[in-house]
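Intended use. Records such as the Amino acid adenylation domain-containing protein entry shown here are meant for training and evaluating sequence-to-structure methods. They are not intended to support clinical decisions.
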Amino acid sequence: MTGATNPPPLRTVHAAVAECADRAPHDLALVQGEERVDYRTLTAAARVLAGRLTAWGVRPGDIVPLLLPRGAQLIALQLGVLMSGAAYATLDPRWPASRIAAILDQLDDPVVVGRPGGEPLGVTRTLAPSPLSALADAGADSAAGLFAPVPADPEDLATVFFTSGSTGVPKGVLIPHRAVTRMFGPGGLDGFGPGHLTAQVAPGAWDMYAFELWGQLTTGGACVVVEENHLMPSRLRTLVAEQGVDTLWLTTSLFNLIVDEDPDAFEGLETLYVGGEKQSPRHVARFLERFPELPIWNGFGPAENCMLTAVHRMTPADDAAPAGIPVGRPVPNTAVVLLREDGSPAAPGERGEIVALGPGVARGYLNNETLTRERFPTLEIAGERQRALRTGDLGMLDEHGILHYHGRRDRQIKLSGNRIELGDIEAAAAAIPEIRACAAVARTDEGGTVDHVALVYTLADGAELAPRDVRKRLTTRLPAYAVPGRFEQLDDLPRRDNGKVDLQALERRPG
C-alpha cells in the first residue's frame, strides 16, 4: 500500500534476511531449476562466502564487483558481500570488455569475483558453480560457517548500480541499505512477505533486480530465478501454474507484448507491477477488461531514488488522463515535491521538476562530487533542510495529489526498461574514426513509448563505413541494450539557426 502512516522500518539488507531465517529457517527462499533453497541454507552459504571474501582481502566499506551470471549462487554471494561489511556492484559478464574496464578503473584495486576461466578481464578471484546446500554443508563442518556478519548501519553502502553516462563513462550510483529496505514489510508495498513468490528476471546490474530479489528476501517471501533473459508468455504461464508465482514486475514493453500475444498468461497472478517506460493506455485497457480485479500498478522512479519513487494502481478511468496514465503517489518512506526552474514549489496543476526526498535517495555518484552536488542538493522544503534528488523528470501534481509524468528535461530515455543516455551512444559513435558527426535520437510509437534509437551520422571525407560495420563497432563499446536499432547515414545533419543539430527534425524523420 502507499501513504502508510507506519511505513516499514529502515534496516540493513542482510540483517533483514537473517531475521527471516531466524523466524522461519525452513521456509522457501530461492528456486532455480531443481534447486530449492530455504532461508537457513541461504544464510549459511552466505556466511561461508563472507568468510571467503574476508580471507581474500575484502574489508568493510569496499566495493566488490561481481561478474557471475544471475542465479542462486550470485544471490548468496551478494548477501555474503553485505555480511562482510562491503557493498557489491553486479556487472554483466556479457558487457563489452571496454565497458567493464571503464567501471573497474573507477574503483580502488578491488577484489573482483567471477567464474574460473579468465574471462572477462579483471577477475581477481573465482568461484566455481556449486549448489548452496554444498556451501552450507561445508560451512557446518568448518570455521567458515562461524563467520559473524560485520555490524552495519542502514546508512552504509549496500550496492552500486552503474548506469549510462552522457560522457561515455558509466556512472556509479551509490545505494545505501536504507534505500533498498524502505518500502518492504508491514506498511509497505503489496505482494511481498511470507507466502508470496516473485519471478527474478531483471538483469543483476539493474535496480529493479533489487526490487524483485530483496523485496521478498527481506520480508520472508521467495524468488524463482528465471534463467532466460526475457520472460515469454509460455514461461509466465508455467511460473504461475507450477511454481506459484503471484507477484511480478514487468517492463512496459514486455507487458505490452504479453497483452498482445497471450493475455491469459497473467491468469493466477495476485499483484502486478509494470514500469520503466511510458504506459500504453490501449494495452492497460485490454488487460483490465480481462482482469478487472487483478491489481496492476504503474511504477515510476530513477535508480538514484532506488527502485521506485511512486506507484499508481491503474484503472479504466486512467484512459482519459490528458497526460497519459498517472505515476501516482510516493511509495512508503518517500516524498515528492515539484519545483519551478527558480527552485520555488510548483502549484497544483503546474509543471515542475520532480524532486524526491527520503531514505530512498542515493548517497551520490561514485568519484563524481560535482555531479553529486548538482543532482543531490540540500534543499529547504516546508521549513526543513533535506537532502534531495533532482530527477530531471518533469511532472504535475493534480488537485488530488496524484503525480503525472511529462517527460525529461535532458536526453535520457527508457527503452525496454533500460535507462539510456543518448549522449553515451553519441560519445561511443564519435570515437569511431570514420564518423565525422552523429546524433542519437529516440523514435516513438503511436502511443508515445520509445520504440527504438536511431543513430544518424555523417562520414569523414573519403571514408567508407557501412551501417552494419557501425553496429559491429558499437557492440564493443556499449551494452547490447544501448546499441541503436537503426543506422542512417546522411550527407549533412540538419542544423538549427544557432548551428546546433536539429534533433527534433531528426526525430521526425520516417523510420
